[in-house]
Amino acid sequence: MTHKIAILGASGYTGAELVRLIAGHPNLEIVALSGERKAGMTMAEVFPHLRHMDLPALCKIEEIDFAGIDLCFCALPHKTSQEVIRDLPKTLKIVDLSADFRLRDPAAYKKWYGNDHAALEMQQEAVYGLTEFYRDQIKGARLVAGTGCNAATGQFALRPLISAGVIGLDDIILDMKCAVSGAGRSLKENLLHAELSEGYNAYAIGGTHRHLGEFDQEFSALAGRPVKVQFTPHLMPANRGILATAYVGGDAQAIWQAFSAAYADEPFVELLPFGTAPSTHDVRGSNFVHIGVAGDRIDGRAIVIAVLDNLTKGSSGQALQNANLMLGEDETEGLMMAPLFP
Amino acid sequence: MTHKIAILGASGYTGAELVRLIAGHPNLEIVALSGERKAGMTMAEVFPHLRHMDLPALCKIEEIDFAGIDLCFCALPHKTSQEVIRDLPKTLKIVDLSADFRLRDPAAYKKWYGNDHAALEMQQEAVYGLTEFYRDQIKGARLVAGTGCNAATGQFALRPLISAGVIGLDDIILDMKCAVSGAGRSLKENLLHAELSEGYNAYAIGGTHRHLGEFDQEFSALAGRPVKVQFTPHLMPANRGILATAYVGGDAQAIWQAFSAAYADEPFVELLPFGTAPSTHDVRGSNFVHIGVAGDRIDGRAIVIAVLDNLTKGSSGQALQNANLMLGEDETEGLMMAPLFP
Amino acid sequence: MTHKIAILGASGYTGAELVRLIAGHPNLEIVALSGERKAGMTMAEVFPHLRHMDLPALCKIEEIDFAGIDLCFCALPHKTSQEVIRDLPKTLKIVDLSADFRLRDPAAYKKWYGNDHAALEMQQEAVYGLTEFYRDQIKGARLVAGTGCNAATGQFALRPLISAGVIGLDDIILDMKCAVSGAGRSLKENLLHAELSEGYNAYAIGGTHRHLGEFDQEFSALAGRPVKVQFTPHLMPANRGILATAYVGGDAQAIWQAFSAAYADEPFVELLPFGTAPSTHDVRGSNFVHIGVAGDRIDGRAIVIAVLDNLTKGSSGQALQNANLMLGEDETEGLMMAPLFP
Amino acid sequence: MTHKIAILGASGYTGAELVRLIAGHPNLEIVALSGERKAGMTMAEVFPHLRHMDLPALCKIEEIDFAGIDLCFCALPHKTSQEVIRDLPKTLKIVDLSADFRLRDPAAYKKWYGNDHAALEMQQEAVYGLTEFYRDQIKGARLVAGTGCNAATGQFALRPLISAGVIGLDDIILDMKCAVSGAGRSLKENLLHAELSEGYNAYAIGGTHRHLGEFDQEFSALAGRPVKVQFTPHLMPANRGILATAYVGGDAQAIWQAFSAAYADEPFVELLPFGTAPSTHDVRGSNFVHIGVAGDRIDGRAIVIAVLDNLTKGSSGQALQNANLMLGEDETEGLMMAPLFP
């Protein structure tokens, strides 16, 4: 059975990545693509790498007849997304890739994003889209909120450890290295090749990155008490890939065992042999997460390193994984392609 | 029906690329992987990006029982390949990715490669593996010789024009820009990140690159007279992608029409609208070729630009395309994945 | 004696490069820096890599008192430059880095740039700034027009050959590979790291690049007859460096000899041993030009390859070289720093 | 007065960087360059970017007459260096860039490097070469041991804080991002462009990196008690630049003040305004260090970020800075060039 799919915001990177992934899915058919500023253009004009595909042209959202659509991916900017989704048919299945429905607490939302939420009741309805940890709820959900890409990476590195009680909760440090596509197709000087290649820098320093809202919500719920991590992202001269280096207190072997138990049956999570460091090179273009654990010469200290592709597992791949569950498809359908290396 | 596959030389880039592609093919099963120096290692150790796959460990060639194998990809170094293939069972279907069986004339082989050929009769038997132009012969072939990656790119840019008689034959210039993975997993100073990134240079200048042997053979056969092109490759700070800029005499519109006719039904060749320049960004990781044509302010001069991914369409993707034909599979099976962008 | 210097348009790459170079010049002092949109900001805010220098803040042009200034570098956008320079004091020495005064023929200017020139008499006065070939005129000039970066590279590769009559004039092809900083600090999608890194493409195909105006003017004047080259630029995933591959008819040894004679005493031009290919890696950040020559297997065909750093020798370094001559300084002062490798 | 200089190990990156820097120094003259495997070659052959310079050819060490040499830079591999330096004239001033004389305690040396030291008494004599903190001792030293590049970066980020007592000593975490030139001109697969570009990974995880020996020695001496930091390096797809992100307990404003006091008169250390993140882009090719400080939403936690160019301030620039002091030159001579951006 073929499911009919719309992608709103198809002229950005996560939109294009959805198209790439759906191209390899046997049971999904893209019937509508929106792009406000580029409406009327073909996808071949906006993304020449998709030229070989038979795709609808970009249109405006109001031109889409949602009656014939089974599931809608929403890859719109933050804040725009909630306003659009609020007005979509209430029977439409939706996977949102923006930040708008990630936080369940309206106050937390306002704190991190600065505005009142325009669709409060849907904020309550939305299921958090980290598939491996919300699988059952996602299966029955109508609206799933895709996670932040940093937030996903950090949670893969820490959730099983918090659940298993094998690490301290008050001194967790997440040093994150993030590829530039996470910033989207934004025209900013620091994202130009001339200014980004061949160097790197931290940003959003001082505990100000919005993905902290997700960490707080999720880790605190898991622990049953407030958990605040220290999190600093760094912008890397690379297009895809996030690497989280988590510094934690705990026994490294117990940490490895907790991962081994938690991820044993996960099709997309690979735990490396103890003491092995994963690399973003090894997950590029794929839906896989690689996790490594090592101890330290200082007793009781350990590091956990998690890597994933921010556009795939951190965003559009995760979204398709969730859509598969919502549509009754096999969770891995269209997502088992091997990473691209070199 | 599942075909059993062996890959000789699986520890190099083209070997790993074959594994990546075959992972997406429903009817091929990898049953043996050889790697002389790394025999005994798992593929996860040699290529961690393939960790999620259930693959045989690397072994030595002599450990492989070819009786149960339907087709063997041979991704060995030049010269080694002919010696190995010579001794394989004569009933085994083989796709060779080395240069050893590309040239049909033993003298030409010796001229460009410096040694006498060790398997002369097989050199005669081998079919040249540029699928789009040798499709019928490949279907019935036992041994197919994969083309050089530069040679493939140049031929996509020029064969239909020579066949249609729309360009001059005596002043063809091919300026080639080649990504570094074309040099293989070779430990050379100029291939180090520190020495290659952020710059570029020509190499094999003066008409000395071995792929000239293929151009001479193929273009002369097509034209029915000797054709010698001037060809200069340049090493680019990128991992995948070849861009051929062909400078030719001829009417640009007639050239575009010749391509349009020649490639109309080709699943992997995309002719861009007249005057549009293709980019290697738009074919990365895929089996597609993009071709652009433009005139010049100088009457009677035109440029043709062809791009492809050297590891995929220029090597391992082409090899799988040929294997599909040899095995009675659909030619495009396992090869329709969209390019990875960004 | 210290010369007082103003830089107009100091918030762009060529402006910042001028500051970098002047920092190493013992006899120049920067007394004014303009940047219209960033007026009021310090250079440390606009270019943190210049933080250690004691520099005036950015101001608007009208705030500058030109009475105390000996020489003004004008790194403004095309068309703006002519309007600003028209109104500067007529006694002020000026080195313009824009395209506005490169073409001497008003009709040629209009053809390539699309508008009537706003300072026609100054267009006649301006001396073309390719130092090695206009040295004597530059010494006495008040207004010097810096060359295009591609135009400079192509001329280093061809001028001595046209002058010496050792190449044919009707089949010259210039295949140019250009780093992205040549496009300036422009916010365009194709200049983003995510879209440029790891790939390449031709642009301005079909003989439409504006630097053709310079080639036509200069080569025709040298030859004493019209000379039209075929020129195609390609955008490279690198920040600095231009590589020109010139395909010419002629004897390669005679070509090498012509270069050897022409450049024997040039402090910034290095002719490589015959048959050696230069690399942009070897001139990065410097004012040097490297030139290589090779023959071809086709008799009577040769290639010439020239490389330089577009921001230094192709723009700001050339500008300082010219300023040195105009101010009576040693031509090489502040310009002999070695390239940065790796 | 001109000082005569020899560089041992001139065929590696730090050797070439020394040549680049000395080229801009008015009072140093290179009279001998050694390179064991490349003896007999010219520097233009080994490093074409130095082609314009008039340099001695590479020779073997035993061919050098040290009688006429004032100072010798030793850029040899670890372990080789101690054996060579042991046998050099005892009156020769030496700046060693290897790890051999960094650790004063023979047991610590053996622990981190695995072998007994071959020149124990010189190990005692050597002065640790972090100029800003050992200036007076370096002025009178005969043998100065250049620091590790990571070790230098981490110490710029932490020494003033330990001295001022403004941070806790038991929970310091150093997350380091290191450019590939720090690995030298080594032929290893993971240093190839094809395997390093576009991705990143941690290495030497688990507290095993040798630079920990330097941290332990220096921080413990400063604090007057054992200090052990947790340090994890990450390999970056860039050629130059180290970024240290230090996670510390302490008041962020007090930290900023401590830096402000400590570095007020340092010509090469730039403290950024509070809350500003430095970037490796802004120090490339220069001898500058940029330092930024920020607090966190968690009270009492702060981050310090320090960046420098590993080949310049982290190695060869530091070496020249020390040589200047040892030779009675101005400390900054030849080192004030601005960074290269973009």
Question: Would you write up a description of this structure?
Answer:
The structure is a homotetramer of 342-residue chains. In chain A, helix 6 (131-139) links the parallel strand 6 and strand 7 (143-145). The model of chain A has no long low-confidence stretch (mean pLDDT 97). In chain A, helix 7 runs parallel beside helix 9. Chain A has two domains: 3-147 and 313-326, 3-Layer(aba) Sandwich (Rossmann fold); 150-309, Dihydrodipicolinate Reductase, domain 2, CATH 3.30.360. Helices cover 30% and strands 20% of the residues of chain A. The first copy, chain A, has helices at residues 13-22, 43-46, 80-86, 106-113, 120-125, 131-139, 149-164, 193-196, 211-223, 252-263, 312-326, and strands spanning 3-8, 28-34, 58-59, 71-74, 93-96, 127-128, 143-145, 173-178, 201-202, 230-235, 242-249, 269-271, 289-295, 301-308. A seven-stranded parallel sheet of chain A has the order 3-2-1-4-5-7-6. The first copy, chain A, is globular. With 342 residues, chain A is α/β, with parallel strands linked by helices. Chain A is built from eleven helices and 14 strands. Chains A, B, C, D: Keywords: Amino-acid biosynthesis, Arginine biosynthesis, Cytoplasm, NADP, Oxidoreductase. Chains A, B, C, D: It is found in: Cytoplasm. Chains A, B, C, D: It comes from Pseudooceanicola lipolyticus. Chains A, B, C, D: This is N-acetyl-gamma-glutamyl-phosphate reductase. Chains A, B, C, D: GO terms for molecular function: N-acetyl-gamma-glutamyl-phosphate reductase activity; NAD binding; NADP+ binding.
